[in-house]
Structures are given as C-alpha cells and as structure tokens.
Amino acid sequence: MAQYVIQADPMARAGISKYLVQKARDALVSRGENPSIDAVRVELGNTGSKSTIHRYLQELAQSEGTRLDDEQLLSATLGTAVAGLARQLREEARAAVAAAEARHAAEAGAQRVELARLEQALGEVQVQAGQLGEVLTGERDAHAATREALQQERIRTAAIGNENAALTVRLAEHGRHIDSLEEKHRHARDALEHYRRSVKDQRDQDQRRHETQVQQLQAELRQLAQTLVVKQDEVTRNGQDCARLSAELAEARRELREAQQNVRDVQRARDDLVAVQARLAADNATLTEQLAVAEGTRQTLVAEERGLRQALAEQDLRVQRLQVRLEVQASL
User: How far is the C-alpha of 57 from the C-alpha of 242, rounded, in Å?
Assistant: First the structure.
C-alpha cells in the first residue's frame, strides 16, 4: 500500500494561524465545499505550508470532536448534522481499521505457519546432515577405495549447507515482510482519507469528460442535419430536371408522330422527312440517355439521403446511450 506524505510548499508564506485556518475551513463548509488542505490553502490566498494547514486541521478536528454533543455551543440543527456526520466517520474509520486488522492478522498467521514449516524443514535437513556425516565417517574407515564417492558426499553436504543458508535468508525475508505488513497497517488509516478525495476528483473529471463528449456529438448531429437539408435540395432540383426532360421527350415524340403523318400525306417530300425523322430519332436517343442519367442521379441521391437518415438515427441512439450513462454516473 502506498504511503502518502504531505510535503510543505516551499513558496508558502509564513504567518498563518489556527484561527485563519478555522475561518477558511468554516467558509468552505458554509458553501458546501470539501475543506481539503488544497481548498483551505486556496481560501487563504495560497498562503501557508500544507503541513502547517494539515496540522491545524487535525488540531481543530480533535478539539471539536470533544464538543460535538454540546448543544449549548451549537444550534439544534447544526449539532444534529455534525453529530451524525461524526458518528458516520467514526463508524467508517472503525470498519476500515477492523478490515485492515483482519487482513493483517490473516497474513501474519499465514507467515507464522510458513515459518514453522521452514523451521521443521531446517531441522529435518540438519538431522539428514548428521546422518550423512556418520555414513561418511563409516565409509572412510571401512573403504579407503571409495574416496571419490566420499568427495561426492562432501559436495552433497556442502549443497545442504547452502540450502540451510538459503532457508535462513528466507526466514529473514519473512521477518522483513511481517514488518512491512505492520508498516502498511499503520499507514492504512492515513491513506483512507486521501483515497476518498482521489475518488471524488476522478468522478468529477469523468463527469466533465462525458459532458464534453455529449457536446461534440450534438455538434455532429447539427452538421449532419445541415448536410441532409443540402442533399434534399439537390434531390428536389434533380426531380425538377427529370420532369423537364420528360416534357421535352413527350414533345419530341409528338413531333415524331407529326412528321410520320406528314410523310404519309406528302410523298414528294419523303426524303426531307426521312432526314427530319433521323434527326428526331437522334434527339430522342439523346433525350432518353439524358433521362436515364438523371434517373440514376436521382436514385443515387435517394440512397445518400437514406444513408444520412440512418447515420442520423445512429447518432441519436449514441446520444441517448451517453445520456443514460451520464444519468447513471450522476446517480452514483
């Protein structure tokens, strides 16, 4: 567990007193703000070291803790609120300390069991070392030809000695670990208040970040709406062009029918009418091709409009989800 140390501000000016710290703290409480060390220092005009402000706040808390139930010093409403808050803080502190003590007790018990197991293993190894020494002595007296085997046994004995040293080192490490656990237990209560402030600051930052995201999405929605209006105007203009081309095609077909009638009526001008008919056929093909191109453009614009409407619906869904997340975080 990390250890939090309040360092003095080297730029702080001397001259603050407990009265000024109490006055700044009361002003913050009256505005509904958290009287943290940084907030009190800002209220004092960025004057005074953090360690001095922290010490004065602790002294004020200790001195006021003995007077929380004195209704002659506080009004009925304020006394009830402060007493309830003090009880809640005491209960939370007791619960945190009890949980930390339980964890420490469990870890210390496990360390004691491990230490006993290692001591037992060390005794077994020592007994084994003694037995090996006796065996080696008997082998030296009985078999002079087994000196090489004796050397190997000596090597094994040295390895066992190394294991004994390693076990001793592990015992020392376990002792240091137990000391570290006790040190962590001492700092747990100091870290609790700092953790609460960190959680509150993180929650405020998350809320501001979500608000920024919602604003960005709303701007994107407005831009998509403007794009949709432009596309709708283009679709309208293309529809008008299609209507105009259809009218021109109908007029051309009418002229073609009149020309054919003239051909049947006037045989002497057939060659001229054939040329006119060819020209009208070419114009008809051109107009038909233009009409096909205009129809394809209209279908493309309709597809783009459909895609824009779908994108707008997806953006609305994303905004609704973000609003639900904001409401959930606000309730938390």
Answer: 81
Q: What is the C-alpha to C-alpha distance for residues 305 and 234, in angstroms, rounded to an integer?
A: 10
17-26, 145-154, 203-212: segment of lowest average pLDDT = 145-154
Query: Which of 15-19, 158-162, 262-266 is the least confident region?
Result: 262-266
What is the rounded (10 degree) CA torsion for 299, 305, 308, 312? Answer: -140
Mean pLDDT to the nearest integer, 23-38? 89
Q: Could you give the CA distance from residue 38 to residue 41 in angstroms, rounded to a whole number?
A: 5
- Encode pLDDT of 35-47 as tens digits: 899 999 999 999 8
What interhelical angle do 270-331 and 147-265 show, nearest 10?
140
Contact 271, 208 (CB under 8 A): no
Alpha helices in the chain (DSSP H): 18-30, 37-43, 50-65, 76-142, 147-265, 270-331
Distance CA 194, CA 197 (A): 5
Q: What is the CA radius of gyration of the chain?
A: 46
State the pTM of this model.
Answer: 0.21
Assign 262 to helix, strand or coil.
helix
pLDDT for the residue 78: 60
| Residues found in the chain | 332
Question: CA-CA distance, 93 to 217, in Å (whole number)?
Answer: 43
Checking if the pLDDT of 10 tops 60, the result is no
Q: Burial, 152: exposed, middle or buried (Cβ in 10 Å; 0-12, 13-18, 19+)?
A: exposed
Q: In which residue are the tokens 């060819």 written?
A: 278
> What residue type is assigned to position 17 of the chain?
S
Contacts 24+ apart (CB under 8 A), 44-47: 44/16, 44/20, 46/12, 47/12, 47/13, 47/15, 47/16
Residue in this structure with the two tokens 């129809």, named with its chain if needed: 295
Return the higher-pLDDT residue of 77 and 174. Answer: 174
Regarding predicted confidence, which is higher, 243 or 12? 243
